[in-house]
Amino acid sequence: MPLYKIVSVNKTTKVLIWKIEESISELKKGISLSENSATRLQSMKSELHQKGFLSIRHLLKEIGFSDFDLIYDPFGKPHLKNGPFISITHSFTFTGIILSENQPVGIDIEKQREKILKIAHKFTPLEEYKTIANAAALIRKLTIVWGAKESLYKIYGKKKLLFLHHLPIADFKFEDKKTTGAIRYHGTSKTYQIEFLEFEDFTCVFAY
Fold first, then answer.
1. Which residues contact 199 (CB under 8 A, 6 or more apart)?
2. Distance of CA 62 to CAs 18, 55, 56, 84, 187, Å?
3. Can you give the pLDDT at residue 1?
4. What's the confidence (pLDDT) of residue 156?
5. In whole angstroms, what is the distance from residue 132 CA to residue 174 CA?
6. How is domain 3-102 classified at the CATH fold level?
7. Rg, C-alpha atoms of the chain
8. What are the start-end ranges of the E strands in 11-141?
């Protein structure tokens, strides 16, 4: 089974990434689904979504949990019953989870695509990146910024946050592989550590 990567962030936090290479029937082996999850799986029209859903359950198994331990709150945020903090992500052929024993966490995997150039103005002040002349580098940078904001949004776990106004990300260099970001909302501000890695034209960003 293709457990693609494990990242030990610190003593209490780790990231697991799965590369989806199996068929749906292969992914169904070795895991059990609750009645609710089985119904959800059946209702998914996209095979890619079904595979992502099942591979997440394999990642849970890797850390000693199962689908029966996973619950979602009214805002759609995942939680583990009597378990660590968790965040989940799926993009095309990769899925990922981040777990922490003692702090809220968020994770996002994104495919690096040109279309991010068209929506960039909606989530970040573009003047911050005017010095990047290379389109490929700009796509990489914006994908990291988007992933960072998505990760923070998942930590907050409720609606109404605006990516452009409430989730500032400090500038960074690719070689740093980390930066900081904040959730600024309703007069409060909290800063988080953000790390990122790139592989096979995908970007994984996580916040803690």
1. 4, 5
2. 11, 11, 10, 14, 40
3. 58
4. 96
5. 12
6. Ribosomal Protein L22; Chain A (3.90.470)
7. 17
8. 13-19, 70-72, 78-80, 85-91, 94-100, 106-111
C-alpha triplet 109, 155, 188: angle, nearest 5°: 135
Contact 54/31 with Cβ under 8 angstroms?
Answer: yes
DSSP annotation of 142 reads H
Amino acid letter, residue 188 = T
Distances (CA, A) of 130 to 126, 135, 141: 7, 11, 12
- In this prediction, residue 38 carries a pLDDT of 97
CATH 3.90.470.20 spans which residues of the chain? 3-102
* Distance (Å, whole) CA 107 – CA 59: 14
pLDDT, one tens digit per residue, over 101-152 is 999 999 999 999 999 999 999 999 877 777 787 999 999 999 999 999 999 9
d(CA 122, CA 84): 33
Type of residue numbered 84: P
Asked if residue 19 lies in contact with residue 94, where contact means CB atoms within 8 angstroms, the answer is yes
* Residues of the chain scoring pLDDT < 70: 1
Instruction: Determine phi and psi for 111, rounding to 5 degrees.
Output: -80, 135
For residue 155, what are its two tokens? Answer: 């930590």
Hey, what amino acid is at 51?
A: K
